[in-house]
Amino acid sequence: DNTEGNYKYEVKAKEDIVTKYGALKNCWKIESEATFPFGVSKLVFWFHEEYGFVKMQYLNYGGQTLVFELTQVTENE
């Protein structure tokens, strides 16, 4: 069955972060919360103007965590 949820997104700050790729300046920090009948999930992600989404931390309603982080950038040839 499909379950409907309520979603909330909020831009929290513009900040410098460190990733496995290195230090990145002026990333937008965005926090999200999704509420479903079976629980709440949260997502925090950082967006860089040049590289896009460079880090995401997801906490699902079951308490499991998943983290994505920029590790390298390749040039288009």
- What is the number of E strands? 5
Oligomer: single chain
* Mean pLDDT across all amino acids: 94
- Helix-strand pattern: EEEEE
* Tertiary shape: elongated
Strand content: over 45%
Rg from Cα: 15 Å
Distance between the termini: 45 Å
Which regions have little confidence, pLDDT < 50, spanning 5+ residues?
none
Q: Biggest sheet, in brief?
A: 5 strands, antiparallel
Q: Structural class of the helix and strand makeup?
A: mainly beta
Helix content: under 10%
What is the tally of helical segments? 0
Taking strands numbered 1, 2, ... along the chain, how are they ordered across the largest sheet?
1-2-3-4-5
From the structure above, extract its key features.
0% helix, five-stranded antiparallel sheet, mainly beta, 77 residues
What does it look like?
With 77 residues, this protein is mainly β. It has strands at 6-18, 23-36, 39-48, 52-59, 65-69. It has a five-stranded antiparallel β-sheet, with no helix packed on it.
Put the structure in a nutshell:
The protein has no helices and five strands.
Question: How is this fold's topology laid out?
Answer:
Blueprint: E1 6-18, E2 23-36, E3 39-48, E4 52-59, E5 65-69
Antiparallel strand pairs: 1-2, 2-3, 3-4, 4-5
